[in-house]
Specification:
Helices cover 74% and strands 0% of the residues. The protein has seven helices and no strands. It is elongated and about 60 Å long.
């Protein structure tokens, strides 16, 4: 079992960057906010905490599986469920942004919204792909299992970075201010900041 442990740890290290749903929310909301834009921001922000918590729990599960001297079959089961949860979370976020529509009164708002939905949908599909990849690993062959985890860790590193950019193009200017004023977005931003500090 020692054979897979260093690779498990690499998988955990990739995730220790933590917040996959990092919001680019700094600054404060403007006092003369656009009511329509604020309503749009609330709809998007209110969908974030539950999905952020799901992604965070999935990250923690992968890290936990990596820190224990776990049998490959257990690592496979944990990672598979974690990737499924991440896929579901990004799918739900894509649906939330899709349902909210284009942010009102924003230049290229429709394009930014569509791009964000596409990026989040791609992430959901990618995590579903990692689930299939981990499900297909041979847990009876330590060396092959370790090699397979290595490939997954590499893919995960790329996905973690793209997760951070999926919403950022949408979160600019007035949209950023409107989102920063929402309690649910503040909660996610504070949670992400706390994770970054402790990881």
């Amino acid at each position: 079992m020692e054979g897979t442990k260093p690779v498990n740890k690499k998988l955990a290290a990739v995730l220790s960057g933590g917040a996959v749903l990092v919001l680019a929310l700094s600054g404060c909301s403007s006092d003369d906010g656009n009511k329509e834009l604020d309503a749009w921001a609330k709809q998007v922000c209110d969908a974030l905490p539950a999905q952020d918590a799901k992604v965070d729990a999935a990250n923690d599960a992968i890290k936990q599986a990596a820190t224990d001297n776990n049998a490959p079959a257990n690592v496979q089961k944990t990672d598979s469920q974690a990737f499924q949860d991440m896929s579901d979370a990004y799918k739900a976020l894509a649906q939330a942004v899709q349902t909210a529509g284009a942010p009102p009164g924003i230049d290229d708002g429709e394009k930014k919204q569509k791009d964000a939905v596409a990026a989040l949908t791609t992430l959901s599909t990618s995590y579903a792909g990692l689930k299939k990849q981990v499900d297909a690993l041979d847990t009876k062959d330590q060396a092959k299992f370790a090699d397979g985890l290595q490939d997954i860790a590499t893919a995960l590193g790329t996905l973690s970075k793209s997760g951070n950019t999926a919403l950022k193009n949408l979160e600019q200017g007035d949209v950023k201010d409107a989102m920063a004023g929402q309690e649910s977005c503040k909660k996610v931003a504070a949670s992400a900041s706390a994770r970054a500090t402790t990881s």
